[in-house]
Design brief:
The chain is an alpha/beta fold. 33% of the residues lie in helices and 8% in strands. It has a domain of 271 residues: Vaccinia Virus protein VP39 (Rossmann fold, 3-Layer(aba) Sandwich), CATH 3.40.50.150. The strands form two sheets. The chain has a six-stranded mixed β-sheet, sandwiched between helices. Strands 7-8 form a two-stranded antiparallel sheet.
Length: 510
């Protein structure tokens, strides 16, 4: 296995850094790092569809299909690090001898999130059941890979609540372990909307660099100024409860998130991300239809002029659009829901939709009374009539279940449960009265139009919701490669400025 010095010499001489992606999902982090100038050795992912998506995009065969060697799902608990590396490079002449220069990944987070904790408590009927979820300790496997493969640097991503997990700050625990392994560490919370992603998504990021590299871990400078809703600042305060005590920081590794300039441009909006995409119409004639939906399909973009952001996603290097749109499919819901989507205003949520539904039902009752046809309250007929208008969820228990996006602001956080429903992201266009499509979710997460997803619709939604936004990943990778003096570095598009030769060659987005 090559030494740290040999790895630094090689990447500073012009070879692209070799990237290993742990808990890779479909490859959001990898896409950012590969776009910044790295080359993927492989991804380690248990979910079969996500593993195939990763292989299709980063290890395709000449036919375009995924390399089956890379496409197989991989359980990180079943392979020691060196064996996994040799397994990934079995068809390569390198066969693991050069090792890896960078390791990235986000250990599964359900046990760290407050939503995930609540579900675990219900399952186990124990107030601290989340602490016993085996997924909560998978970060130890990540550390095992770092210890054995000795990368030059690493990046770890997770939800903000990893900093307040049952009263523990896992950020400090991980940094302490990395410090013992001769890595300089820093972590912070970054929001994707500050980095050109049309989504307000707050996440924990940890960057560590081996001390022999003689540089400090750094985070990218934000390029967008965003006015976040109160809920985001409240969530951040809860996550940082163990770190911020008045004016005093309790952690030597926590860094305050860098702030954008006061004159920085506003965030990229949902309208900029989706405005050039064609309207979807088949959901209305298929209302109530059940069953899995396949992906792909070929749709013309239409004649709407794309925004700068949309042009980037259509012309992303190595992931350019084929000239038509794929995966622009959405869920078939009920006519009841479609009626509510049409009358909801941007920013309104489930309680408001429920109130609209009750009013519509009462108007129907008034019409039926005039005809003398109102079924007795409590009867089966009455309940069936009400169900045609009113959703069954308690508005007091599910306040955030539905939300209609606004075209003039970034979308709210895309979650993994997109794989089960997409009511959290109702399209802002009332005439379409629907939830977002797979390709629209990908656009909001900053996946380029040429990126392919394996599996069916629900799986693709879940893969997207679980991902790190690639554009944010590119920003983090760009900053790291810049300080590591990597010759193959390709600058992050948001960072590139006219008349700034220090930033390198401008990426073409038009």
């Amino acid at each position: 296995m090559a030494s740290i010095e040999a790895k630094l010499k090689r990447i500073r001489a012009g070879e692209p850094p070799r990237l290993l992606d742990l808990f890779s999902g479909c490859g959001g982090l990898a896409l950012g790092f590969v776009s910044a100038g790295c080359v993927s050795v492989g991804g380690v992912e248990l979910d079969a569809d996500a593993a195939r998506s990763y292989a299709r995009n980063f290890h395709p065969l000449e036919s375009g299909r995924p390399d089956e060697w890379h496409a197989s799902s991989k359980n990180i608990l079943q392979y020691p690090p060196e064996a996994m590396l040799k397994h990934l490079e079995r068809s390569s002449s390198k066969d693991g001898k050069e090792g890896v220069d960078l390791i990235v990944g986000g250990p599964p987070c359900p046990a760290f999130t407050r939503i995930g904790r609540a579900k675990l408590r219900q399952v186990r009927q124990h107030p601290e059941a989340f602490k016993h979820d085996p997924r909560a300790t998978l970060y130890l496997e990540y550390l095992k890979y770092v210890e054995e493969l000795k990368p030059v640097a690493l990046v770890m991503e997770n939800v903000p609540d990893v900093l307040n997990w049952g009263g523990l700050n896992l950020g400090d625990i991980i940094c302490s372990e990395l410090d013992r392994r001769d890595y300089k560490c820093a972590y912070t919370l970054l929001n994707a909307a500050n980095y050109g992603v049309p989504q307000m998504r707050d996440r924990f990021f940890l960057v560590a660099v081996h001390k022999k590299a003689r540089i400090d871990p750094v985070f990218p400078f934000p390029t967008r100024r965003v006015d976040f809703p109160p809920g985001y600042s409240g969530t951040r305060k809860v996550a940082l409860k163990n770190i911020l005590a008045g004016d005093r920081l309790s952690s030597p590794w926590y860094k305050e998130p860098p702030l954008p300039d006061s004159n920085a441009p506003p965030p990229v909006t949902a309208g900029e991300a989706l405005g050039d995409l064609p309207r979807i119409r088949d959901h209305l004639k298929n209302a109530g239809r059940r069953g899995p939906r396949n992906l792909d399909g070929h749709l013309e973009y239409g004649d709407k002029s794309p925004s700068t952001y949309a042009r980037l996603l259509k012309n992303w290097p190595r992931f350019e659009s084929p000239g038509y749109l794929r995966d622009h499919v959405t869920r078939y819901l009920t006519l009841r829901d479609y009626r509510l989507f049409k009358v909801m205003k941007p920013g309104e949520d489930y309680p408001k939709a429920y109130a609209y539904a009750v009013r519509a039902f009462e108007k129907r009752l008034t019409r039926e009374r005039r005809k003398g046809q109102v079924p007795p309250e409590g009867s089966r007929e009455y309940k069936e009539l009400r169900a045609e208008y009113v959703p069954p969820y308690d508005p007091g228990k599910f306040p955030n279940k539905w939300r209609k996006m606004g075209a003039t602001e970034p979308a709210r956080t895309l979650m993994a449960h997109l794989g089960k429903d997409t009511y959290s992201h109702i399209h802002y266009d009332s005439n379409q009265k629907r939830v977002i499509s797979v390709r629209e979710a990908a656009r909001l997460q900053s996946f380029p139009d040429g990126f392919r997803f394996e599996g069916r619709m629900n799986s693709a939604f879940r893969q997207i919701g679980n991902s790190v936004p690639p554009l944010l990943a590119w920003a983090i990778a760009d900053e790291l490669l810049l300080h590591l003096e990597v010759k193959t570095r390709n600058p992050w598009p948001e960072r590139v400025r006219e008349n700034d030769p220090a930033q390198g060659t401008k990426v073409r987005v038009a």
